[in-house]
């Protein structure tokens, strides 16, 4: 009886809210007319267009897009383009544990007009009623949220208290203009920018002027003659009629669909995207939108087209890839001039399309491998910066910092490798073939397949062991000049960064990635990962990655003496699940290559790392070395003390700190201080906290910017660096940390926050004009 009463109460409450919303709609309709989408795009030559481009766009980018740019933007409100602004917001959550896959809501792909987004449940943040100045402000949610913040600025205190919730999994509160009054009464301090300083008076007046005049916007600048010429050349190359060209283009598209392409000698900030289209070059692009790049396009003719990137470039999703004459010639050499034939093209049936070893069997493995090696950082970056804006599922399967190496191309003949991969294609199947509705119970099937592949690989190694012993020469040396030969991966809890070179002190673990492993990582975490998939798909993806990580680590420990391999692996997998330990203990000795590496000490791993550093020296960049930045001895000493912190001394430090240091002459230097957290193992999906080993934490400090999600800013004069290092080394309580920020921190509440934010962004553009993008402030701490 009581349950029935509660159920009726909830029904009444929902009906009451619905009635209130309906009443509010009628009120707005009576005041300003019915709602309908508006045409807001004007030419940049108009006054409204010029005002938006020169005055409003910079405010939106530097004050709004820094929180509203990716899938995990609050309420999916993406303010990084006119299309995103006009689309508005929704209460639908992308990163959620759901039993059924959600319909994708990718901007530019899953709907082409604002009206289509309305049918998908998105509400406007701009006025869509009568276009009068009064209506544009009073019936526009964006203005009301900015006004709410202006009328209720941050309290004059360092740390925000009350009902602020900055956790990533906080409940979504997504008001519409009809429910705004109720929202404002409940949350008067939740205006925009949320939990950050207000816009300046000048910025607010500009936004107010823009909004009251109808929020007119402009499309990206038209293509230049050079850009059009480049697009024509590339589209001609990618859409030739031979089967070789068609298979090559399909392979390239499935690997580059998330990248931002740029042309040599191009002006800063012009990037392009490769898409599949129903229309050929010369006609308007009719984009084919599918969940995954290998899904059936459901059309007889597919054309690969290049379109200009419309949205603001964000560091967290920016994967720049250069397109020039050398690139075209490289692809010609690898895929067209190579001696092979493609008699028939593969189908798009999921059993084939989700498995690159079946789909691209006719492309020489050495060509595919070299394609990946040439830009290894880009393809590792794919699973870090790809569709995983919030990547805990994909990233808690890796350590916080490790080095990555690659096997040399053509270690085996194309014929032998093609035969082996073809024979093992069933065992190399990936969870992506299960679409986005996979059950976690399907995991058992893939575990068996992976075990079978490992057995086959072990047998192959045993057969070849007499003439093929693993040595440093087996590792790709970048041909002496390619800086992709060695990479460092930093994990920052649910996001990560990958940089070229061997950065920091030797890590606990390292990977060596061979071709088959490289391809599976890409198709598991990039091409085959669906952020809109169900919980089974996401969990199975994460669990399958366990096997790929283990395989990469096995490749590395194969270079160690046989008697040391399991000892090292046991250290990496302390306290791991019984199934994982049993799996590793039962691995046959012939699963490892025999090694010809000779050791002079018993500290094998450290000696091996030194050998790698010497072997790869010609390709190792000094970009992340403090020694090359013209620092004084005192500055170097203090900064190195920060980077040398370990164990309990790091406990109170966040994941990523951006630092500006200004010397006595006014010269600025910028650094990233990165917290590398220690774990007993990274095999447990639900027990990450239990596996934490704080005593094994380390820090890394590098010049420039590493990490798209800073947690806090430090701003310091060089004369105070020693004092900063002293204070950090002696941090013992939260009060100590807060005192440190009082002296040297720029908190999210600081009146100087936006000034320093702008300076960091400008510096990033100056340091790395191609790689730079806007940072994301959704992970700023409140301490």
What can you tell me about this protein's structure?
- The protein is an alpha/beta fold and 783 residues long.
- It folds into three domains: 2-212, no CATH class; 346-621, no CATH class; 626-767, Nonspecific Lipid-transfer Protein, Chain A.
- 40% of the residues lie in helices and 9% in strands.
- It contains 27 helices and 13 strands.
- The chain has a five-stranded mixed beta sheet with strand order 11-10-9-12-13, with helices on both faces. Strands 7-6-5-8 form a four-stranded mixed beta sheet. A two-stranded parallel ribbon has the order 1-4.
- A hairpin with a 5-residue loop joins strand 9 and strand 10.
- Helix 2 crosses helix 8 (201-212) and helix 24 runs parallel beside helix 25.
- The protein starts with a helix and ends in a 16-residue tail after the last helix.
- The model is unreliable at 1-17 (pLDDT under 50).
């Amino acid at each position: 009886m009581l349950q029935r009463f509660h159920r009726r109460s909830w029904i009444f409450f929902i009906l009451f809210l619905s009635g209130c919303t309906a009443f509010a709609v009628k009120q707005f309709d009576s005041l300003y007319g019915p709602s309908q989408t508006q045409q807001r795009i004007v030419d940049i030559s108009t006054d409204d267009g010029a005002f938006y481009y020169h005055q409003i766009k910079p405010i939106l980018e530097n004050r709004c897009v820094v929180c509203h740019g990716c899938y995990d933007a609050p309420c999916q409100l993406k303010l990084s383009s006119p299309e995103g602004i006009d689309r508005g917001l929704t209460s639908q959550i992308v990163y959620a544990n759901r039993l059924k896959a959600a319909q994708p809501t990718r901007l530019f792909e899953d709907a082409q007009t604002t009206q289509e987004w309305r049918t998908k449940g998105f509400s406007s943040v701009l006025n869509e009623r009568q276009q009068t100045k009064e209506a544009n402000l009073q019936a526009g949610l964006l203005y009301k949220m900015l006004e709410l913040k202006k009328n209720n600025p941050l309290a004059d205190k360092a740390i925000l208290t009350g009902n602020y919730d900055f956790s990533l999994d906080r409940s979504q509160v997504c008001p519409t203009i009809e429910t705004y009054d109720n929202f404002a009464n409940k949350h008067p301090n939740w205006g925009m920018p949320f939990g950050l300083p207000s816009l300046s008076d000048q910025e607010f007046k500009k936004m107010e002027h823009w909004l009251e005049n109808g929020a007119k916007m402009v499309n990206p600048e038209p293509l230049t003659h050079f850009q059009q010429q480049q697009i024509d050349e590339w589209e001609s190359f990618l859409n030739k009629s031979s089967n070789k060209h068609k298979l090559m283009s399909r392979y390239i598209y499935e690997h580059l669909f998330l990248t931002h392409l740029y042309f040599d000698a191009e002006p800063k900030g012009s990037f392009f995207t490769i898409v599949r289209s129903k229309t050929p070059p010369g006609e308007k692009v009719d984009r084919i939108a599918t969940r995954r790049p290998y899904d059936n396009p459901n059309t007889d003719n597919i054309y690969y087209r290049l379109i200009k990137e419309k949205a603001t470039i964000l560091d967290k999703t920016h994967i720049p890839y250069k397109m020039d004459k050398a690139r075209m010639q490289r692809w010609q050499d690898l895929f067209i001039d190579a001696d092979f034939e493609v008699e028939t093209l593969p189908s798009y049936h999921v059993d084939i399309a989700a498995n690159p070893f079946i789909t691209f069997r006719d492309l020489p493995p050495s060509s595919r491998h070299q394609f990946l090696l040439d830009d290894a950082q880009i393809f590792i970056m794919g699973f870090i910066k790809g569709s995983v804006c919030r990547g805990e599922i994909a990233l808690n399967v890796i350590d916080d910092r490790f080095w990555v190496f690659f096997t040399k191309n053509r270690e085996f003949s194309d014929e032998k490798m093609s035969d082996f991969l073809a024979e093992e294609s069933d065992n190399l199947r990936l969870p992506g073939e299960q679409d986005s509705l996979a059950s976690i119970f399907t995991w058992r099937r893939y575990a068996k397949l992976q075990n079978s592949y490992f057995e086959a690989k072990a047998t192959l190694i045993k057969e070849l062991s007499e003439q093929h012993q693993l040595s440093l020469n087996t590792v790709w040396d970048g041909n002496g000049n390619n800086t992709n030969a060695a990479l460092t991966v930093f994990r920052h809890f649910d996001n990560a960064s990958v940089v070229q070179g061997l950065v920091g002190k030797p890590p606990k673990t390292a990977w060596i990635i061979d071709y088959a492993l490289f391809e599976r990582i890409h198709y598991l975490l990039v091409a085959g990962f669906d952020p809109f998939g169900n919980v089974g798909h996401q969990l199975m993806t994460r669990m399958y990655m366990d096997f790929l990580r283990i395989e990469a680590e096995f490749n590395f420990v194969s270079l160690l003496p046989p008697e040391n391999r399991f000892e090292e692996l046991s250290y990496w997998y302390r306290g791991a699940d019984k199934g994982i330990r049993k799996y590793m203990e039962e691995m046959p000795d012939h699963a490892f290559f025999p090694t010809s590496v000779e050791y002079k000490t018993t500290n094998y791993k450290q000696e091996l790392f030194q050998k790698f550093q010497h072997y790869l020296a010609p390709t190792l960049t000094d970009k992340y070395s403090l020694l090359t930045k013209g620092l004084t001895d005192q500055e170097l000493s203090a900064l190195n003390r920060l980077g040398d912190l370990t164990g309990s001394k790091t406990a109170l430090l966040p994941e990523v700190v951006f630092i500006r240091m200004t010397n006595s002459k006014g010269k600025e230097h910028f650094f990233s201080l990165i917290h590398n957290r220690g774990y007993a193992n990274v095999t447990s999906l639900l027990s990450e906290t239990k596996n934490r080993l704080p005593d094994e934490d380390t820090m890394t400090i590098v010049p420039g910017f590493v990490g798209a999600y800073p947690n806090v800013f430090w701003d310091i004069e060089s004369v105070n660096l020693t004092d900063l290092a002293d204070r950090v080394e002696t941090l013992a309580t939260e009060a100590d940390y807060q005192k440190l920020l009082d002296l040297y921190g720029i908190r999210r509440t600081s009146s100087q926050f936006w000034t320093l934010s702008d300076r960091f962004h400008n510096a990033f553009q100056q340091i790395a004009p191609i790689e730079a993008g806007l940072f994301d402030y959704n992970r700023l701490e409140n301490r």
